[in-house]
Every structure is written in structure tokens, then in C-alpha cells.
Specification:
- Its main location: nucleus.
- The chain is an alpha/beta fold and about 675 residues long.
- The protein has three domains: about 95-335, P-loop containing nucleotide triphosphate hydrolases (Rossmann fold, 3-Layer(aba) Sandwich); about 350-540 and about 550-615, Rossmann fold (3-Layer(aba) Sandwich), CATH 3.40.50; about 640-679, no CATH class.
- Helices cover about 40% and strands about 10% of the residues.
- It is built from 26 helices and 16 strands.
- The strands form three sheets. Strands 5-6-4-7-8-3-9 form a seven-stranded parallel beta sheet, sandwiched between helices. The chain has a seven-stranded parallel beta sheet with strand order 12-13-11-14-15-10-16, with helices on both faces. The protein has a two-stranded antiparallel ribbon with strand order 1-2.
- Strand 12, helix 18 (about 435-445) and strand 13 form a beta-alpha-beta unit.
- Helix 13 (about 315-325) crosses helix 14 and helix 16 crosses helix 23 (about 575-590).
- The radius of gyration is 36 Å and the shape is globular.
- About 35% of the residues are buried.
Amino acid sequence: KQPGALKRKLQSPHGNPAVKRQRKPSLSTFRKGATEADRREKGNLPQKPVPRKQLTDNRNESQKSKPFIKTSSLFKNNPDIPEIHRKAVQQVQENVFSTDSFSQLDLHPHLVSGREAAQLKTCFFGVQKQTIPVLLQGRDALVRSQTGSGKTLAYGIPLVQSLQGMESKIQRSDGPYALILVPTRELALQSFDTMQKLLKPFTWIVPGVLMGGEKRKSEKARLRKGINILISTPGRLVDHIKSTECIHFRRTQWLIIDEADRILDLGFEKDVTVILNTLNTHRETRQNVLLSATLTEGVTRLADISLNDPVSISIADEIQKVLNPASQKDREASSSSNCTEQENFAVPEKLKQYFVMVPSKLRLVTLAAFILGKCKFEKHHKMIIFFSSCEQVEFYYDLLVKVLAGGPELEQPGRSSPSSVSLQFLRLHGDMEQEERTEVFQEFLKSKTGVLLCTDVAARGLDLPQVTWIVQCNAPASPAEYIHRIGRTARIGCHGNSLLVLAPSEAGYVSLLASHKINVSEMKMEKVLTSLMKDDRFKLHRPGRKKSCGTNPQEVRERATVLQTKFENHVHSSEGTVRWAKKALQSFLCAYTTYPRNLKHIFHIKSLHLGHVAKSFGLRDAPQNLTALPAAGSKKKTKPRPNRSDLLKKTHGKRRLAEILRSEYSSGMDTKVRRKKKR
């Protein structure tokens, strides 16, 4: 019975076969498996084949661990970057400083001390050396000099010297003795600040400023109290001439037009004519001064209207006479016979100019890498970036603030790594409120570091100290505008740098600059992108990957792709940001169609790849619903005239159509049947 009982115990209660007992693995079994594994590693035993199901599972797990980048390849299907063989040109230089000093002039001692108190140097600038004696003699002058050469003091010092030395002491209620016209509000504030410093010792002379965006009521109150040196933009002054009764120019002895070429470029020629006619009706005799960095046809025409036997002052021409008198005589002879000769521009001596060729797809990541390299990983850099429209400034300001200035590294306190240094972005354009524009201007003026994104509203006359880099994302429409943009750095003998971003199809712009004696050097895009290696936020994390030494080109491309993905993720995070990006893209395309005819062979709208350009605005695909872009100078399209067959359908029969066409009171286009309104 015992064997039968044992057999029943091994069977399951449901009648199924008995479950076999598993033997516990012994120590010898473990040793045997270990020796076999060692022999397989050494190659003595063949590897066991891995099941196919296990292989597919491993592949799926590895794919899940890798980050999914929702972007097309940035480095494929790009146009080839051409090699530019440019001739080395000798740039026109100006002697900014002079060996003479202000002590040699017959100036009021308080004026000299006040000038030194304004933290200005005791030596002459070249333009001041030639301009101040002429203006002290009471002569009219046409002054042409490079940006940042001290033109404001060139007219400010003789103006204050003349007013403080008048026999009858000036009273505030006398009204304006001097009128200074400037093109922009920021330049008006800067000129007003300079005049305040010069007038500190002479408290009875009151300066004042009029500009758009301010309250007319407060400006009228200041005019009623009295302003002796009036600084204004042309449009605002014409507004007060037409609407303010208390403004008069009976005692005006000075008319100064600063940045005259820019005033004409902004379309203020009619306003300047109104101001000149008003001044002539009140007082015909006065001293007139025109100042500009470039001498255009419009400035020459304005000089003929406003100046009386002027003295022409040009620092570059004086240096050219000394260096090469023969070529100067030839140039004068040719310019007298041919007025369309190309103008050569003077460039600051300590300004280094670069350009970088970037395909449209890589424009955004290249700009971001350049900002990081100069303003985040290097100390004491201050940068201005120029765009062609207000919409681009607003869009890129929001995008760069959210992606570059943010990040998890910046939110952790106590981090001392280079990536924890915060970036400060500011914006400035014409669509902003005046109060905000003034606040941004003053903040950037006082800061030691920062990035200012702006339009050409900040391209003329502004003296922004410690600016080390000028970046032009969109090429200017003329070499003269290029000179004014880069003139925001390397001012008054300081060092500065500029970078011009060009597409491969825009390579001809370098030759255009060389024809105007402007020498630019090439900076490689690959060198700019290597700055991304310093920021671990854009590192592509892969398990088991060794840390690379130096700058691996493949890793640089991977980091650029990660950065582009961050930009695109932010843009596509909401419908509003996508709509904003499309609006900025459309404004860029509209601005691209406005290049002048002589530059159409370089900047043509058909040379752009819309999908590649869309990537530079963080869009993954080319937008399909952009409105039709008008060509440069084209008029609005009129509605097409309807066909006779369409009229027949709308008028419900031939008889009604015949009545409309025969009626002498009908235009022939009244296709809708009039119905009586129910009362």
C-alpha cells in the first residue's frame, strides 16, 4: 500500500499528471556556466544565437531611450557656400583725434571745465578742429564726417559760446535762439543730454526737447515757459507750428540740421521745407549748419536751399589730399563732370569688419551660437543686432528670451558654471510706445553687457558706449546704411567689431562693399557653431557614449540640431506663437522685395527657398496660407471686371441685363435686383 499511497500523493487533486520537482542548482553548475561564458568571450566557443523576438525587443527599448527630434536635417540639401576671392582694398581713414587742444581756442573757461566735467577728453577731434573755428566766425557750414567722430560737440561748443557771450543776457521768455533738428526720438534725447552737460555753468540758458510720443499738453506748457535751445524731430515741430500759438522764432539765430541724410530718408523733406519757410517769415538772417556722415543728392539739394555761402568740411577729403594729391585732383575733376560717381566712405580705424555665409536653414542656430559665444562665454561684451522690420524684432526677442535666456541651469541657484550666466535681451523699434522706448534706451545706455535687438531706428547718431559687436542679420539696402549701422561701435577711437550675415545667393554684396572702399573679412560658420560645445543644455544625451575631447564636427551638428528643435518646440507650443512666426516671416519677405533696383541681382525674392527661410523662424514647414506679397513699387490690384456671362447669371435673365445696360442712370455693374424693404 505504501507505493500506491505515494503515487496518489504525487498526482494533482484534479487527476492531472504529477508536477515534476525541480532540482536546485548546485555550486558545480554555477562554476560550469562561468567557465563556458569565459571561453565564449575568449573566442574558444561559438556564441549562442539570440532569439529573434529578443532582438526586436532590445531594438525597441534602445529607440525609446533615444530622444526623438522633430526636425528635418539642418545640414542636408543646403546650397554650396561659394569661395569669395576679394581684392584687398585700402579703406578711407579719418584722423579722429588731433594734437591741438581746446585751451588754444578763445572759449569761456567755464565752458571748458564743463566739457571736462562731462567726461570728455581734452584734445580735439578732427572734425571739431575744423568745424569749431568756422562756426565761431559766424559762417554757415556743411560738415561731413564719419559716425562717432564728435559732430555733436562740433556744433554744441560754438553754439553755447555764442549764446553765453551775448551783450543782453538771455531770458527764458525770449523763446528759441537756436533750433536743432534730429531724425529720431532717441537722438533727440541724446542731443538734449549733451546740451544739458554743456549748459551746466550757464543756468540762464534753457534747453528743451520736442518729440513724438510725448503729451502735447506738457510740451505746450514748456513752450509757454520758454525754451532757448529747442531740440526737436521735424514732424513734431511742424505739428506745434500748426497748432501751438505761443511758439515763435523771432529771435532764432541758429539752425542746425543733424543727420541730414537720415532726415530726408525718413521722408521729412516736406516738413523741413515748412520749418524753413516759417523761420524765414520770422527772421531771415541766421547761421545754418548741416551735418551728415554721407553726402547724398538730397543733402546737396537741402544745402542749396538752407545754407548761405557755406564752408564745406570733410575730414576724409583732407586726408586724401595729403596721401595722394594727384588722385584727389582727378577725383575732383571727374566728380565735377559726372555726379553719379560712387562714393567712398570713411570707416573707423579700430573697427574690424566680418561677414559670414550662412544657408537660410542654419541662420537661426548660427545667430544663437554667436550670441552665446560672445555675450555668455566671454566677458564684457555688448551687442546690437539689426533686423529689417519691427515684427522680426518682436518675434526674435521673445524667441531668444524664452530659449537662450531660460533653461534649467539658470533656475538652479548657486551654480557657478559658465552656462549659468544670464543673458539680458532688450528690444527697440518704431512701433513701441515712447515711454517704453526711452526706458529701453536708458537701460541699454547704462548697462555694461546685454543684447539689443532693433531696427534702423538705432542706426543713426546714437552714442551707445561700450558696444563691442554690431550684427546685421538682414543686409542694409545701401552701403551708406551699412556705414551708419557699424558706426554704433568703435566710437571716438575705441575698438569695435561688426558681423554681416549673408546667404550664399547674396555673396555679391561683398564685392559691392569693396567697390566703396569697405574691406570685410570672412568668418566661417563652422567656427561660430563651435560655441555650442560650451553649453551642455544642447548636448544630445546617449547612454554609453564617451565624452568627446575637443570640437567634434558631428557633435557640433548634433547640438545645433538640438538647439533648432528647442526653437521649433517653442514656436509650435501654441497657435499664437506659430501665427507670430508667420507674421515675422511675411514681414521679412516683404522687406526683401523692397531692395532697390541696382541690388536686385543680389537680393531677389526668387532666390529664396521658402521652406529653408521658414526654418530660420522656427517653423517646421513652409507656410501655405501666407497672403500674396506685392512686388516692390507695385500698386494694389483692382478687382477683375466681371464677364458678360457672369452678369447674365446674376441678373436673372437677358431682359434685366438689357435694362441695366441701356439705362442712363446705371453704371452697367448693378447686377443685384433691388428689393423693397419691409416696414
